[in-house]
Every structure is written in C-alpha cells, then in structure tokens.
Amino acid sequence: MSGGSDHPKPFGPNTQLVRAGYDPFDYHGFINPPTVHASTVLFPDAQTMEQHGQKYTYATRGTPTADALCNAINELEGAAGTILVPSGLAAVTIAFLAYLSRGDHALVVDSVYGNVRHFCDTMLARFGIEVDYYDPAIGPDIEALFRANTKLVHTEAPGSNTFEIQDIPAIAEVAHRHGAVVTMDNTWATPLFFKPLDFGVDVSIQASTKYPAGHADILMGTISANDKHWRQLKRANGALGMAGSPDDAYQVLRGLRTMGVRLARHQASTVAIANWLEGRADVARVLYPVLESFPGHGIWKRDFKGAGGVLSFVLATDRKDDFKSKAQRFLDELSLFGLGYSWGGYQSLALQVDLSDRRVLQPPEEGPLIRLQIGLEDIDDLVADLERAFAAAALA
Length: 396
Description:
Blueprint: H1 13-19, H2 46-51, H3 64-77, E1 81-85, H4 88-99, E2 105-109, H5 114-126, E3 130-134, E4 150-156, H6 168-177, E5 181-185, H7 190-193, E6 203-207, E7 221-225, H8 227-240, H9 246-256, H10 259-278, E8 283-287, H11 297-303, E9 310-315, H12 323-333, E10 338-339, E11 349-352, E12 369-373, H13 379-393
C-alpha cells in the first residue's frame, strides 16, 4: 500500500500547457491532433440522424480539432465548456447576446476595449438594451448602479490601454446578489496569470489572437463559461452559427504549447522597460500594474500571478497643442517597434492611444499616451530604439 496521497500533485503551468486538450494516443500517437476540414458529417442510418445520436453532427457544432483546443482551454480556465469564434471582439459580443434581451440593462467598465463600446452603443442600443459605463475602481460601490433590470456586468482587467485593475471578487459578489451574470475579458493576463472563474466571474473571454496564438497571424476568440451559464452560451452560439476554423484552431493549440515560456519572456522584458521608463524625466507616468506606483498595484498583487507584456506611458510635454506632433515624432523614429494594432505576438509594437470615447475616466493631461507591446527582442535593442524615439520627440 502506497503511503502517498490519493490525489496526485497538480501539474505545473507549463506542463499543463504541453499536455492539455489532446492525448496523442487517441490518434495513432501523433503528437498534434489532426486538422479536420469539414462542413458535412455523415450518419450511419436515419434514426441516428434524426436523434443526433453521434458525437459530431455538423462542423459548426464541433470537430475533433476544435474539441482539442476547447478541451485545453476548459482545463486552463476551469470551465464547464468553451466555444471558439472568429475573433476576440466576436467573443465579447456573442457573450453579451447570449445573456441580454430587449429591455435589459448592462454595466460595462469604462476602460473596455473600444470596439466593444462601439458594439454596445450601436447594436445593443438597436436591440433595446441599455448600457451604462462605470469607473473600473468602483469595487463594491457598483451596487449603487444596479437597476431591477440589470442582467450583466462586464469587466476587463487590466483595462484597455490604461490598465486599471478591478476588484473582481467584490464586483462579482454584488452582481450575483442581484442575479446578474459577470463576464470578463481576460486577454492580458490569460488563465496562467488570472483565472476569472476562480474569482467569481461566470464567463471568461480571451482574444486567442494574442498570447495563445502568439505569432500575429491568427484571429480567434474563446468564450468559457461555468456550469450554471454554459448551456445558455452554447445555445446562443448555435443560433448565431459562429465557429472558429480548423486551421486556426490547430494553430492556436500549437501556440498554446509555448505560451508559458513566451509569457515569461514578455513579462520579464516589460517589467525591465517599465522601470526604465519610470526613471525618465520625459515620461510623466507609466501605466503598468506591476509598478508599486500604479494605483491598482495592491489588487494586482493580491489576485494575479503575473503580468502581460503590454503597458502605456504618458510622454511629458508642456504644450497641450503639441500632443499629436510629439507622439508622431516619437513613433516615426522607432524601427524595432512596429506601428500596428493588436499585441501578443513576437514583435514589439507601438501606437498612440485615443481615449476620446471614455465616459467616466479622463485622459492624461501631461501629454500623449503611448502604448507599447514588448515583444521577444533583446531588451538592450528595444531600449536603444526607444532612446532614439525620445530624442526625436524632444526636438522642437
């Protein structure tokens, strides 16, 4: 009789990433799953067809390739089920459509991804769904914003571009007392650094475009729900007919295997560059939750196991009318940092952030806001590139 525990020690995160979602011996020992290209699935007889009496019935409802990725995400998220959709934005909007109806009210964090705000202000408004935006620092005081018809609270932590950290457990507790579902965009941290469903969130959303895929060549989103909310999400997705492609699912699963080591590199480089930026006189503020100077640092340290590789900083200037030209001089001098949207890939990226759509939060007054995605390049090379950009921005 063994003296060991009946419950083996859980695997570490990188071991889990390597193994999750697919057993090679389910398919002749090949280490990666097959990429199943399909629309039609055949049935052996009419009765099986009538009763949908087999695992696969039509490709929008799942394939072996999609299942391999969904199983892996379920394991990482601790979810009852996951669906794959063509983009991160689609993941958020489908989650909203799954749980909101005409006459409902939703609370959405003011630091939400800008395209989600556009969806709320256009499509949801057309459907007769009201949305109010709230301060990400509101915590349990969000209770004052609830109405009798508030059915959903959307969170995003850190917030898009400005990286506000939310007190997710406090918000979730209030929302659940009022019978509202809690959704969260967790793209920045991934389930390796924050597991939303462990903190009271009902539906966890990732833009797999970013760190899971990791190579700036795939668009995909995942939506993962707890047991209480999974069936409603699955029904809504079936009605909408959304599905991720098999090639993209294969590529995301392949990227997932190395996500842990890539995230460690992204994080280490970003922390180093954040500290370097904070010591510069031509930087008014650095927005990155790891820094002790950041207003949400305490909650980040309490709840998160790590940090993503995206930060912002305020480029200091004395002239408000010089914001755009100063930012453009900075950006145009960069050579290693590409000028592009998105993030999560191997190359460093930069852009000027537009916060004109915010309803509650005010944009920085000290200068333009620059967002950096810190890629996998050598830190010394990135610092030298930024040094040249700061020198260019300083020119009159």
